Amino acid sequence: MKILHVSKKYPQALGGDAVVVFNLRQQQQAVGHDVAVVTSNCDEIADAPHIYKFGLKDTPAALDAITPKRIVSLIMLFFRMFAIVRRERPDVIHTHSIDMAFVVSAAARFYGIPMVHTFHIVTFYDAHQSVFRRKTELWLARMAKPQAATVPNTYDVKKLQQAGLTQTKLLPNGVDLPFWRAYAHVDEREEFVFVAVGRLEPQKGYEHLVRAASLLAHTFPMPFQVIIVGAGSQEESLQELIRSQYVEDVVTLVGAKSPEEVRALFSQADAAVFPSLYETTPVTLLEAWAASVPVIVSSVGILRDVPVSFDAAYVVSPGDDEALADAMSQCITDIQTRLSVAASGYKEATKYAWPHVAQTAEAIYRSIT
Length: 369
Prior knowledge:
The structure is a single chain. This protein is an alpha/beta fold. The protein folds into two domains: 2-174 and 353-368, 3-Layer(aba) Sandwich (Rossmann fold); 178-351, Rossmann fold, CATH 3.40.50. The protein has helices at residues 16-30, 68-88, 98-111, 131-144, 154-162, 177-180, 206-217, 235-244, 259-268, 283-290, 321-333, 335-349, 354-368; strands at 2-6, 34-40, 51-54, 92-95, 115-118, 148-151, 168-170, 192-197, 224-229, 251-253, 271-274, 295-298, 314-316. The strands form two sheets. A seven-stranded parallel beta sheet has the order 3-2-1-4-5-6-7, sandwiched between helices. Helix 1 crosses helix 13 and helix 7 (206-217) packs across helix 11. The radius of gyration is 21 Å and the shape is globular. The model has no long low-confidence stretch (mean pLDDT 93).
């Protein structure tokens, strides 16, 4: 089968969609499929055969916003896509950004190529989003008319189906279990270390993590550190918040790191924290689970409405500083529960192994070709 992925990001322009597309491509090539990728024009993305970069040169951070440069790039993609499809002649086009899906759907229909679209985030029902973005997401999806739509969690499958996209199916995000299991954890230290990984954007809820760390630092007798990995538009405001909360000695922003560097940080961490305000399935959550790191996470994405008996993470309500601080305190003080959460988390990660996810994707492709 010949597959053409269309994604706004691809390594090393990192984001959850980049990680998903890269790993899915690897799995598909491993079983004999021919796979090409259309992606943005960033210096971070290496030139390679069957990697088509389009549009004006941009930065990874800017790709998450609709800017004049991105609009021009999408117009350029509309015309270039006809040539790419004519050259590659894919059996299926798999898009990973709804604006790009809308733009490439014209070429897909012209050449009679079925299209699958994956929603890496669903915003149309989310009050955190602007009304314009919420309405635009559904309009673009309906106009793109993919033969199949996918999303990584069952809650969003139901939401999209109820909104009229009845062709929506479940396609979980995946995790490379052997890669993330490569390091053994260090012995416990006197100072407890939390690691958080993700873009420094409002969605990730890091302001709540800083405030929770402040609450804990001023009331909790045991020393701890919070290491936040990532880059983004909130770096300056988060640094200011860290100063205003007097936690410069507790919370550290260390910038973006490679997957190998994140893996090394996980191996040195006592726990991971993911305080997102909204997600579908945080890829970093799956990676922490696979690394057998106990996880504190907000109840978004696949953890929305989990039962009280769920034991693979400390689950807190998004945006709740006090609940987050309390979970961090419990994680530090209760060693047995922490170890149990880590073991259950790894068991949960095995459900998301990439070979299984790739088989699910292929079944979806074959259902529409």
